[in-house]
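Batch job 17 of 40 flagged for manual review because the log was empty.
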Amino acid sequence: MHLPVEDFEPLRVEYLESFYDSVLMLDGSPEAFRALIELLDAALIHGETVPTLDNSTTRVLRTARDSGLPPVRLFFTIERGTIKFMHVAHYVENEP
């Protein structure tokens, strides 16, 4: 079921200082940048459907294994209508 556009309440976006610091730690490749953009896009569109980590408000999105993109994960929270991007990092695929 799709909601009419007039019923859509967009999330406000906040980038925490730790997020900016973590972006600088990515390898700088075009593939890592594309992974970051795809994760940000997915969080904005579907972030509220991403489950929270146990006993936390933090949510995590990862690049899909079959996407051809490097393994990158994005940590964020959604609180009172604001999505807060906290951290982004490369990860080892077999890591929990």
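Reviewer: the log was empty due to a logging misconfiguration, but the result itself is present. Residues 19 and 86 are 5 Å apart (CA to CA). Unflagging and moving on to job 18.
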